[in-house]
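re: ur question from yesterday

yeah so i grabbed the chain u mentioned. its 129 aa long if i counted rite. heres the sequnce exactly as i have it in my notes:
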Amino acid sequence: MRRNSLPKVTLIWAAIFSLETASAIAQAKPATRQDEAPLRVVLAGLVHGHASGFFNQFQHRADLRVVGIAESDRQLTAQFAKRHGLEPSLFYSDLEEMLKATHPQAVLAYTNTYDHRRVWKSARGMEFP
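ran it thru and got these structure tokens back, copy pasting raw so excuse formatting
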């Protein structure tokens, strides 16, 4: 009996979309207007290897502002906070709580690929400015 491959295809698409979106945001040209507010972004997870790459690029950007990071692994959040000089107030252990508290304009998924769909489901009901 052949299994339905739609869930696999959906997860693969979500992972590719997430990586392409994060890459585009990290590589986009910085805003040129001084009066433009930076894009408010949140990170869902830190376990994916691209999270470090984002922070390496992010620190040179004036047009992005990280307003929250949802990650339940306290040891991992401590490592990122120390390595990248992040304030402890940015970290949340619960994704939905972070989304409600921070009102982001973009959500970047750096969870394991299995959880990308959960991130998408949590963020899809939000109203993004």
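noticed a couple things. Strands lie at 39-44, 64-70, 91-92, 106-109. also The two ends are 46 Å apart (CA to CA).
anyway ttyl
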